[in-house]
Amino acid sequence: MTSTEFSSMVQKISKSLKPVALNLTRDADDAKDLVQETLLKALLNKDKFKAGSNLKAWLYTIMRNTFINNYNKITKRSSNIDSTEYFQYFNTDENYIAKNGAVYTFVVSDINEAIAHLNEEYRTPFMMYYIGFKYLEIAEKLNIPIGTVKNRIHIARKELKQVLKIYELNG
């Protein structure tokens, strides 16, 4: 199957993904994000799809797994961050303390410093998203368009990744 054929088939099926995503997320914006992320993963991993198998089921599986992974990330974030204060970056929960306390201290310090050095217009939406606010809630609280919120969070992540690339895992 060529890339064009695959893309065409995915595009035809993509319309049926939105109701399922909406059922999972219970939020229109999150459903759109989930569908978009599902389609991106499908297109990036088209070589893993076996021609002749059920493409729709494959896409639903990608969507379900993506939703579960995102849900787990959000609940993990929410449980480790004090949401009463936007910029309290990390709790000192014993489950997350490295065996080498000095290394842990340096890592947390570097992360906090990198976040503190973000431009305020990127840091605020990033931290709000980090502690569990949805894109729409951030847009409403900051009185900016949702697309701007997504863009600022993306830029903040990109800048943090660049600054903290010394901690990148190899392999």
UniProtKB/TrEMBL annotation:
One of its GO terms (molecular function) is sigma factor activity. GO terms for biological process: DNA-templated transcription initiation. Residues 111-160 form the RNA polymerase sigma factor 70 region 4 type domain. Keywords: Sigma factor, Transcription, Transcription regulation. The keyword Transcription applies. The keyword Transcription applies. Residues 10-73 form the RNA polymerase sigma-70 region domain. Belongs to the sigma-70 factor family. ECF subfamily. This is ECF RNA polymerase sigma factor EcfG.
